[in-house]
Structures are given as structure tokens and as C-alpha cells.
Amino acid sequence: MSYNFFVIGGDKRILYLAEMLGDENNNVKILGFDKLFESQQLFENEHLKRANSIDEINKEDIIISSIPLSIDGINIYTPFSDKKIKLDVLKNKKFIAGKIPENIFSDGCFDILKDEEFTMLNTIPTAEGAIAKAIEETEITIEKSNCLILGFGRVGKILAYKLKALDANVYAESRNEKTLAEIRAYGYNPVKFEEIGNKICKMDVIFNTIPEKIIDKDKLIFMNNKSIIIDLASKPGGVDFESAKKMKIKALLYSGIPGKVAPKTSAIYIKKIINKRCIL
Questions:
Q1: How do beta strands 228-231 and 205-208 pair?
Q2: What number of H helices and E strands is found in the chain?
Q3: Is there a contact between 171 and 198 (Cβ–Cβ < 8 Å)?
Q4: Can you tell me the distance from the alpha carbon of 233 to that of 210, in angstroms, rounded to the nearest whole number?
Q5: Class of domain 119-259
Q6: Using CA atoms, how far apart are residues 69 and 63, in angstroms rounded to an integer?
Q7: What is the pTM of this model?
Q8: What homologous superfamily is domain 4-114 in, according to CATH?
Q9: pLDDT tens-digit map of 93-109
Q10: Which residues are CB-neighbours of 93 under 8 A, at least 6 positions away?
Q11: What are the residue boundaries of the structural domains of the chain, listed by start?
């Protein structure tokens, strides 16, 4: 059975998703990818058609939009177009996207970032991308390096596992005694929240996964300026970037990794969830 899709904005993940849907003989209209049409960088797919306006949405169309839906809270995220598409065009519509604002969300909407299976799958490219960034930005090997992970949630656990596989000395922080015991059971070095200042000076790479200001000026003063911080939390991150810059400490906010390092794999994940939760 074929379906009609209307895709509005998004990064490479959504573009690959549109291609995959078209390859399955679905009819796919896309809006917000003008730069790719102009440069002829779009996939050659007879089922992939350009839409010129939101008004081309038909009643039977399954609407898919960006992950996250918006960066500025006003417009749909459309990195492949200079034309703005207001969030309001989706008001009272049923659609699939990520991080849908409350004032836009309505009955029938599906926020894929709230799907447990999708968030777990997303930890894989996030962890791999974080490690790739650490390799790119440092002059040492991951092997035998001291790596501290702040936060031991979904991303923290997968990241610790992959770092350990590369023979890094893995330290993981938590404020929870049970989680600290879990960290030790996995063979990593547990770090209490109040111990961060004492440990941070010995680290080569610090990965932050906590979406709150956890690495402040008081902790930065203990850091070696040859170390690097890779902040994986969503904007504005968990680092005092202004203080880090003044102290000449390299600190990078590196969020939204799946769309940057593994868009094709991420598109497969998205399609799997859409098929399971929204279509079949």
C-alpha cells in the first residue's frame, strides 16, 4: 500500500527519509529544500516532488516535519532554504516531528523525540559522533586517555561503553548513589557530583550530557587547558562557555549529532518508528 507524504523542512535525516519513502512508491512532496533544488543536489526519484506552498497539503497527506521542529521558536527549521516557514502553519494539524512546542501540539501529533525506542537508537550515532569529535579535536589517542562523562543516562551509558571498548580510562559522574554503584559494576570509575572539581584536572576529554550549567567557572579553574570539553546537551548546553574562552579552555557545544554524522542511519530509525507508531 502506498501513502501520500508532505515533508516540511528538516536536515539531511529528513531528506534521506523522504528518499526512502519515495523508493517504496509512496508519493512524497517536499517543502523547504529550495537550495537543493536550485543546485540540483536532490535525489533522482520520480516519487519525490517539490511543493511551492503549504497550501498544497491534501487531506490524506501524512505530514512530517523537522527534528527539532524549530530552533528559534518562531519558524520551522529549514537549513536547506532561506525562506521562512512559520510554525503557525502547522497549528491544528496532525503531523510528525520532534520537540513540538506546546502551543503547536494538538491531538494526533506525534513527537518522535518522546518515543523511547527512537531516543535509545539515537544514542548510538550520538556516542559515535562524540568520540569522532574528540579524536578530531585532540592530539592524543582515545586509548589510555582519561575521559569523564557527566551524567549517566541513555547517552552517557552508550558513550561509556564505546569509550571502554577503545581502552579509554572511563570516569562517569552521577548524583545518585545507586547509579554510582552501577557505574562501578560496569567497570568504570564512579565520580560523585561534589568530586568533579578534584577529578577534572586529570581528564583529557570531558563529555557533558546534562542540560544544565554543570561546568561553571568554579570548576573550570581546576581544568588543564590542554583538555577539551565536548558538550552534548541541547542548547544552551551545560558549560560556562564565556569563562572557558577567557581561560583558553577548548569547549565545544556539539548537539544534534545524529543529523550531522549519520543522517542516513538516523533516517532509517525515523522511518522504523513512523511505520510502527503512525502508519501500520
A1: parallel
A2: 10, 12
A3: no
A4: 6
A5: alpha beta
A6: 12
A7: 0.87
A8: NAD(P)-binding Rossmann-like Domain (3.40.50.720)
A9: 999 999 999 999 988 89
A10: 57, 63, 106, 109
A11: 4-114, 119-259
